[in-house]
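Pilot study result, target chain (328 residues):
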Amino acid sequence: MTLEQIIKIIEKSAPPKLAMDWDNCGIQVAGSKKKIKRLCIALDPDEKSIEQSISFKADFLLTHHPLTIKPRLPNHQDSFYRILKSLLTTDTILYSAHTSLDANPQGPVRWLADKIGLKNIKVLYPTMTRSAARIFFQHPIDISLKDNDLQDHILDCQLDDQGKMISMVAFHDNVDACIALIKSKVWPFYHVVTPCPEADSICGIGFTGDLPDPLSWAEFIEKLKNLLEINFFSQAGNPPTEISTISCCPGSGADLAEKAFAQGADVFITGDMKYHQAQDAGQKGVVLDVGHFILEEKMMYEWYLSLKSELSDIQINFIRGESPLKVV
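Predicted structure:
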């Protein structure tokens, strides 16, 4: 596949427009390769992951965390210097999908919600709304979604009895791209664009959802441990006897505890809870700090499985990470 095609598929799950202003998503280290035959996926662009991707002879390394948030020079022979040297000398492309992935509520970030079976899922901390629009065609258009890139842009379409397209729904920021793609296949045609608020998508960080059936605290803890494959975590606050509503922010989300409880959460799951944050949050509800690493490591593995099925014509390898925090 071409580099352009790979990035296009990545950005379906991690649209750059969803990234936070302070973040650094996208290509971290460029390369000259236009064809991608081998792809590696990892949580962190650390020395171990870089070394394994090079051993795999990867053309492209996709990570969640960026190499650096703020620009810096390789003016010391430290880890950053060695990583850059390894990537540049092997012409390996590095791409980060950080908050661009985190803020897509339909993407891999909701893996835990899906595994637990949550319903009535909503965004914990909304950051933007992607407005949708419906494109009506004056006359039905004979165009197949399989013959072009429309399927990457549209949310829904309406066909007539002969299979011709009468209308389509897309996010407003994709409407121009849709029209351009149709023009490349069918011309002339006439259309009208109207708002489609029922297809709007609220994007943001974390999620809150309801369990299909309430669980006792012991049942919930056992389920969570099995899903995360961990034996311990930190807890702040006194747990209720029964759990019905769960909030979660993968990675570092301790600041969102108050929002979680305001949305009716019986328990808030996240990582990187500090001492005073735990004191404050524990007075309002129960917070489980399961660690920054495991929630996002599992998220990237779920994305790997999805991409592996979609990119069946290239070799893909998942590089397992390691939490920097050890139990001693």
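One observation from the pilot: The mean pLDDT is 95. A full batch analysis is planned for the follow-on phase.
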